[in-house]
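User: My instructor asked us to take a sequence, write out its structure as tokens, and then describe one feature of it. I'm not sure where to start. Here is the sequence I was given:
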Amino acid sequence: MNRWVQGPIRTAAIWGTIIPSNHTVRKTVRHQRRTLDQAVQRASASAATRNISRISSFRKASKIAFYVASDGEIDPLPLCQLARRLGKKCYLPRVASNPDRLTFERFLPGHTTLVKNQFGIAEPKHSPKDAIAPWKLDMVITPLVAFDRLGYRLGMGKGYYDRTFSITPRWWRRPKLVGLAFSLQEATFIHHAHDVPLDMVVTEQGAVTFKKITL
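Assistant: Let's start with the prediction itself. The structure tokens for your sequence are:
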């Protein structure tokens, strides 16, 4: 579960190396992800899902947030369905009325009404009774455009996940943040002070942890 391949635009972060702009990384990786052969994409997504399902912390978690796939992302729906069979509660993110944050609401595949937000991404129709505070989740499966070997995640540039999980109250533990991606999404990019690193990234090649987390 720890085999990796070098990403297509990975650049050594050493003195004198020119690191691609985040805009360039996003553009390149999104194109490569979208143009993956469909058979390869399905096989890779299945392997990544299988890898994460074997992780002890996933098995132990009772409340897990997923996402609705778009733009060639790995679809975590099969993983969510497995989680439900294991008796776990599943959630999806919503862009809150405060545009700087995410909220999370209960997700029952086939039953929860989904609507498109201002970015064209499906999210649960707001239902206060189904909401959960972000820091009460045990694990959050995050989408990403790119990731690096330090555990940083490059998203679409809006910063929703970073802002949401940088304000976890000290009296609650932060949920495990797990990126789900194809191995080709590994890259080198520019970090910012407000970036919140992931605990783990799982691809079709296996899993790599960046903090103390049970495999």
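For the description part of your assignment, you could build on this observation: Residues 22-209 form a domain with the Rossmann fold fold (CATH 3.40.50.10420). Try explaining in your own words what that tells you about the chain.
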